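Attaching the record inline, Q. Sequence:
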Amino acid sequence: MVKEISLRIEKGEFVGCIGPNGAGKSTTIKMLCGILHPSSGEVYIGGLRPQSDRMQVVRRLGVVFGQRSQLWWDLPVKDSFDILAAMYGVDAAVYARRVAMLTELLDMDDFLLTPVRKLSLGQRMRADLAASPLHDPDILFLDEPTIGLDVNAKKQIREHLSMLNAEMGKTILLTTHDMDDIEQLCTRVIVINHGSLIYDGTTGELRSRIGPPTVLTVSFAGSFAVKDAEEGASPFQIAERGRTM
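Structure, as predicted:
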């Protein structure tokens, strides 16, 4: 359940949304998309209500749900792109340029003609992220787009999202459990817990509220002496030396 959430996102912002599982992050995005209808309160996208002005609003949105693909499972990736372009009425020449650009940016040449069901998770996420801006939306809602990905895939996706925001002016709302996503991409972060908005500000302000870095104390089952340990050695360095002596 979502309650007591009131926020305004300006054009061109890159906003991160964090919180524990079940906090209401995905529910909030689904209400912003018009998938769910709020029982009270109002949602507006550029002055339009997603629930009543759905056709006009969805043309302005690109959406990625990390655990649910918008691509057709048994079709090659390119065929899914073709269908989405036709649904949104994208001009053929414009569509060809966008697909070529996105294919290069997200390194999709090797799997563009591969059925979606045969893709790895990282490949599918890149394909989904390419599909979302095909119709040139103003706003992107991304629900955990880096979930389960390896370091290289995350890096590639972050670079793509940064380009969409910085160079193409897309407004982006990103939900994630990965604080590296927040620190590397977002200029603003909101925290949702138990369906309520409990923080809205910069990552620096959030860090100052949390406090200094955690100090880890390591206890050893047996006693040992560490010789010639330089000043300031970390507990892990000391532990490793003690283990090998």
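The two ends are 55 Å apart (CA to CA). The chain is about 40% helix and 15% strand.

More tomorrow.
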